[in-house]
Amino acid sequence: MSKNTINYQYRKPLPGTQLDYFDAQAAVNDIEAGAYERLPYTAKVLAENLVHRCEPSELEACLSQLIYRKRDKDFPWYPARVVCHDILGQTALVDLAGLRDAIASQGGDPAAVNPVVETQLIVDHSLAVEHAGFDPDAFEKNRAVEERRNEDRFHFIEWCKTAFENVSVVPAGNGIMHQINLEKLSPVVQVKNGVAYPDTCVGTDSHTPHVDALGVIAIGVGGLEAETVMLGRPSMMRLPDIVGVKLTGERQPGITATDIVLALTEFEIPKSRLQLLRVLWRRH
């Protein structure tokens, strides 16, 4: 069992594999028959997370928030990953390095201090463009400037990659989080300690939710909340608004899926946004 797994009640063998899973359907339907089948997809993923990680004494009350669409109780959410850009991610790792120093000064083992949750650090917020694109050597020149200006920071990040467990680094020169394929970083289904469960994550960049396209719940957060999740603590939440959108027709030429998603996220009062959607989408 994972040392972070609390609830054992609904752990079951996953047919055709040597893995286990947590049966959220059984847990929800034990509270109200047929309730799981009525839940939206997002709530089903949140339910699995609760069955997997919630304190057993709190499980029914927390699942009831999802079943009955209530918002009178905070419930814990334990994301499987943390994705950070280098500015906020580095700050969190500096805190952990400082904690290692404090433990070592008290005679403890500093190597015991590690992120509990898988942490992916993308070095992308340090580039300042000094050479324009018309220069055929612009990329190499800008990278050289970036390395010179951030030598100490990059050295620390490289140290973190080998010093800490559960930390991986996408180094400078590979693009920003807007361009790096965040879907590529997601396993979609996590497999750890003999248990298969949905991938979920928090990230310190506004583009973190791009991976939602894979059915992975991903939420953008601040540095302190990301650090809290790194240390294995839950991100507390109340049931968010879960809205389904059905689009018919086809995209206008030159309009990307991202354009449509960004338009949808601006919706507050549907009427006021209707013209914008018509521009992006042509109905048959």
Automatic annotation (TrEMBL):
Its EC number is 4.2.1.3. It comes from the Bacteria. It catalyses: citrate = D-threo-isocitrate. The keyword Iron applies. GO terms for molecular function: 2-methylcitrate dehydratase activity. Keywords: Iron, Iron-sulfur, Lyase, Metal-binding. InterPro entries: Acnase/IPM_dHydase_lsu_aba_1/3, Acoase/IPM_deHydtase_lsu_aba, Aconitase/IRP2, Aconitase_4Fe-4S_dom. The keyword Lyase applies. Residues 72-266 form the Aconitase/3-isopropylmalate dehydratase large subunit alpha/beta/alpha domain. Pfam families: Aconitase. This is aconitate hydratase. It comes from Vibrio variabilis.
